[in-house]
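Why predict the complex rather than its parts? Because the way molecules touch one another can change local conformation, and only a joint prediction can capture that. The input here totals 947 residues.
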Amino acid sequence: MSEADVIYKTDALIAEDIDAYLETHRNKTMLRFITCGSVDDGKSTLIGRLLYDSKMIFEDQLTALEADSKRVGTQGQEIDFALLVDGLAAEREQGITIDVAYRFFATEKRKFIVADTPGHEQYTRNMVTGASTADLAVILIDARKGVLTQTRRHSYLAHLIGIRHIVLAVNKMDLVDYDHAVFDGIVKDYTAFARSIGIETFVPIPISGFKGDNITTLSANTPWYQGPALMEHLETVEVDATIDQTKPFRLPVQWVNRPNLDFRGFSGQIATGSVKPGDAVRVLPSGKTSTVTRIVTLDGDLEEAVAGQSITLCFADEIDCSRGDVIAAADNPPQAADQFEATFVWMADEALIPGRAYWLKLGTQTVSATVQQPKYTVNVNTMEQLAAKTLDLNAIGVAELTTDRAVVFEPYAESRALGGFILIDKITNATVAAGMLNFSLRRAQNVHWQALDVTRKAHAALKHQTPAVLWFTGLSGSGKSTIANLVEKKLHASGKHTFLLDGDNVRHGLNKDLGFTEADRIENIRRVGEVAKLMTDAGLIVLTAFISPFRAEREMVRAMLPEGEFIEVFVDTPLEEAERRDVKGLYKKARSGQLKNFTGIDSPYEAPERPEIRIDTTRETPEDAAERIVERVIGSWSPVI
Amino acid sequence: MSSSLPRSSLTHLERLEAEAIHIMREVVAEAERPVMLYSVGKDSAVMLHLARKAFYPSPPPFPLLHVDTTWKFRDMYALRDRMASESGMELLVYRNPEALERGINPFDHGALHTDMWKTEGLKQALDKWGFDAAFGGARRDEEKSRAKERIFSFRTASHGWDPKNQRPELWSTYNARKNKGESIRVFPISNWTELDIWQYIHLNDVPIVPLYFAAERPTVERDGMLLMVDDDRFPLRPGEEPVMRSIRFRTLGCYPLTGAVESSAATLPQVIQETLLTTTSERQGRAIDKDAGGAGMEVKKQQGYF
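Output of the joint prediction:
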């Protein structure tokens, strides 16, 4: 059977009438897809074959390919298409792909972007990354092996990330003599599995990436297969961007365009729906409404814009609208909420710490968020739900999520743009997780802050002081409580209204339900932070003495308070010195193993990088240190009148 | 088949354009001091055009940075100055002072020329002005190591790239937060192919350097490459005599390092036609990829080359 040329007679038109050719090609659509399979399934070979058959390989590349095939190829003297695809030097040496790579090819009808993702279990994060932008997934199966654990894993992930089109490519048909029964058996197995995880439809195709069967044209080797060929299916399947146009209008605002006083436009990429001048819109979360007057572009104003386009809108009214807001259809706006159930894919070596604050970025909104202990994780090989205390690298789990302010959202199943988010570690800035909002646990708009007539400012003014939190942090036995006590006495003596929150005392009451696991320690600090904040609202100067070993939690408390009111006092006593003192005998117990998770011994202490005040207790007496702190406090604070 | 799709389906170019604009706006919203690297080639031309679209009616809110080697074609300098003035953007030109002083040139210094003018020059320029995000016109289809590079690609304080430690990039949600000393290279046209670039230029009348079109130009043939004698700094070897040939360039860089192709393609459709019918890949005209075998560009990037 003659190959590609039957369908792809592009060259002739290019040579005969380039203008006609260009006219055809400017109207091409675009499909993004991923290929899932392991090294052995022939994934790279298939992609190489697609590039080759769509004439995306130049002569010099082909020459290099032939040479490479002989040198390091795995196909003997034949062309090893996989070498076209396996990019980086490191993985060429190992003979495997290690990351997400993007490939491009085009036919007369479509441009294609292929995310090539590896098939090893530890690379779940790469596959999810590649799948997040895909309209379609090609699940590769080795015809000799049938449905394997990894097939189930890839299908589950593709379905999880919301891919609507699944192709089951049963590869290496040439190695099973194009046996119809083998193909049917695999399809039957897969159908049962797909139904069990909620995949409603999929398209099975028998192929050989190596020989080219059923790639661009139907193969004579599989007369029992009626089609479509893989390429034909890829060219005709409906893309998500088109489906998104039928949904209600949503535009996450990226940037406010203000070149001068006469122009104020709101720029962003339309997530779903369409918009025309004259449309009534609502800005979320404020709920203010206006009417669209113009859709502005460099090429002139538009009469309509649709999902996927990046545009700038002007309104009839001067309403507040800035980055992070969502402009929506006035009569059908999305909700805002601050508590959710979400599904997470954990992507960092460092596991989730329940209760710790992370940045959450959803569309153009960035908020601070905490994740609870997972309700369960999913074993991606068996789909079993398992109890878990945390999420490790490549784990998939469901957990509740709280944000520090309301987020405009839609469930992920309805909108990838307004339901998909990333979590960012506040210290390392790494992207640690991908998340998908399932639903909100309550509507944020139902929770109102009680407006208070006697303000925090009035409370402070009556006491003639500026409220603050003096946050003492340091190892157990470093001298925090001793110094904090002295400071409070001195402040009290000079007429200041103070209160000392001590670690041990708080654990006897407010926090007596908490233990010493990492999650409990975080919750301990969060509660203390909230209490300290209420006390500053009452106008007090609060002193706290807690080990508070984690930088992220101290920063969380800092973020709760107005700028300048959080004063971090680092009581810097070396471990050897604190252990030598061992006032409460705790180090001895920790060393003997009777006490677990003891800071400095088997749990880390993250020292402050830029504390407002640092006390070196090996050089300064508690009395001198206290004096210095009081001077700093009273010296720098003038009474608020 | 296209008739069965809704009429409003965006074309591939419309989607690529919208994606690039989205990326540029994210950077402007989140970076402190962005800049656009402008090399005056066709990819830069498209990138600049997209920037003007992204922020219209404002001019793009960042400067253009040209890391100059003093060895670009004269036509490139002319277009550079014209486009800066038309776009209303500030143009910053940086030339590595050490390379200038030592008279580093492509004829006498080989690989050192690229290293000092381009690699070192770029690092110095970014450090000098403290840019924390730099737009670049690289495309993933150009070269294998680029196929794996993120759109937001982080560089260490010494401008190194670690291909094994890249942040996952999900949906179109980009994490632009950097650690102290880090900077970001941002590639808004990552997903464009060479043909996409040409078609976009054609559809949008994007101004490009005339050298992309065929014309009679003075040339010499040397080491299998057809070089243009763009000015009198070109040292002719014994027996070499510039010959007028109808040539054009598929890619533009320093004129002594950039190979021309013989061509009669004088219009954009003709150039595209020739590109489509050609059988050698775009970068073959450039000497830079050949340095270290298959892994040449990857090694260069780890060292800080763009």
